[in-house]
Design brief:
Layout lengths: L11 E5 L13 H13 L2 E6 L8 E7 L2 E7 L1 H15 L2 H4 L1 E6 L6 H5 L2 H21 L3 E3 L6 H8 L6 E4 L6 H10 L2 E4 L5 H4 L4 H6 L3 E4 L12 H16 L7 H7 L2 H6 L17 E4 L12 H7 L6 E6 L2 E5 L2 E2 L4 H19 L18 H10 L5
Parallel strand pairs: 1-2, 2-5, 5-6, 6-7, 7-8, 8-9
Antiparallel strand pairs: 3-4, 10-11, 11-12, 12-13
């Protein structure tokens, strides 16, 4: 098997313990512990972002025992205690392969109208408290879904800085681009996300201002994947189309965004992100003997422009081979897939979501999916 030059492409994932700002699963430590135990078994790295939801509190959560949901009320203090527990017991596990980050809901001016005065004051105080905790503990502090003035709002709250990692960050003003660069705040750009359709993250402008921008997948739903090769390609086309100029974001620059720049954003630049003496042996090897990667010249260009996740043959994390011959070394893939499928089927039935699996009327022969337009209207999402 012929191999191209190895690259330190991503062996590390940042995951939110939940999604959005009202369903963070931090009512008890058991869920974060389970996530990290799973990552430990697979053999990769994880930075798990944990934090509280947006007020009002208490929030109602449920734990399933013997097939029955047992509800319990959860306060902010309960969620904060969960974060403290996970930091104390999980951060830095297995030679720093497992780590904790802290997250708090993104705020912007429009929330002042949506939240009552008391809840808004609580949200601001809770955001500052989580950011301060992250600074004191030397953790990454992250916020999801920045857009439309939220960066300026975060600066006013005093929660930006080299420890902060803001996702999406679309529709930034020139002032906010300067704020990001001046505070040393990091940005994770998700070019394949719905948020990047609704508004643009000004990646090229941020980079030229001196900001650090890394690349993310925004998870695997509804229309994207965890394949970072796909997102590198999407990133290049996205911004070249905006500028009407193919010279923007050369492939090497985009490769840096999901390797060395990502490691810098996570405070791991001294350990991973590039292949250098003294750093941990995190290496990804690709099977080069594939028609879409031939002829076998200009391998770095082909790595970025043509490769995909299915080309990965071997993954080495901290010197341990976690994937060889495209087979996981430490877990039974079939058992994991079967368990995930069974849990999904149960969830669909329990929540009554099975009708959502039906092929919509607008799937075939339509110029525009009007069911999506209606759903976006109901959810309050609009084109910026």
């Amino acid at each position: 098997m012929a191999m191209p030059p190895p690259s330190s492409t991503p062996t590390t994932a940042v995951a939110l313990l939940g999604g959005g700002d009202t369903i963070m699963r931090c009512d008890e430590p058991v869920y974060g512990e389970a996530h990290l135990d799973g990552v430990a078994e697979v053999g990769t790295r994880s930075v798990l972002a944990v934090g509280a939801t947006r007020p009002p509190f208490p929030r109602t959560y449920a734990r399933f025992e013997n097939g029955e949901a047992k509800e319990h009320a959860t306060r902010f203090e309960d969620m904060f205690a969960t974060c403290q527990s996970l930091v104390e017991t999980q951060h830095g596990r297995l030679g720093k392969r497992l780590n904790i980050a802290l997250i708090t809901p993104t705020l912007r001016a429009e929330h002042e109208a949506g939240l009552g005065a008391s809840d808004l004051a609580d949200a601001r105080a809770q955001g500052r408290r989580m950011s301060d905790f992250a600074r004191e503990a030397g953790l990454v502090f992250t916020q999801d879904g920045h857009t439309k003035g939220s960066v300026a709002y975060a600066k006013e709250l005093g929660i930006l800085g080299p420890h902060a990692l803001l996702s999406h960050s679309t529709a930034l003003t020139d002032e906010e681009i300067a704020i990001v660069a001046d505070t040393g705040t990091h940005i994770v750009h998700n070019p394949s996300a719905v948020a990047s359709i609704l508004a643009r993250c000004p990646v090229t402008e941020l980079l030229e201002a001196g900001a650090n921008v890394c690349l993310g997948s925004d998870a695997t739903a509804p229309d994207r994947s965890g394949d970072m090769f796909r997102h590198m390609q999407q990133c290049m086309h996205y911004h070249r189309t905006f500028h009407h100029d193919p010279s923007w974001l050369p492939p090497g620059r985009v490769l840096e965004m999901c390797t060395v720049d990502a490691a810098r954003a996570l405070g791991m630049a001294d350990e991973i992100g590039s292949l250098e003496a003294g750093k941990k042996a995190d290496v990804v090897l690709l099977d080069w003997r594939r028609p879409h990667l031939y002829p076998a010249n200009m391998p770095l260009f082909r790595l970025v422009y043509f490769a995909n996740g299915n080309d990965v043959d071997t993954v080495i994390v901290d010197g341990r081979i976690a994937l060889r011959g495209r087979k996981a070394m430490f877990v039974n893939e079939d058992a994991v897939l079967d368990t995930a499928q069974a849990q999904t089927e149960w969830m669909l039935d329990y929540c009554g979501f099975r009708p959502l699996l039906e092929t919509p009327a607008s799937f075939w022969g339509q110029v525009r999916a009007m069911d999506q337009v209606e759903a976006r209207s109901l959810s309050g999402l609009k084109k910026n």
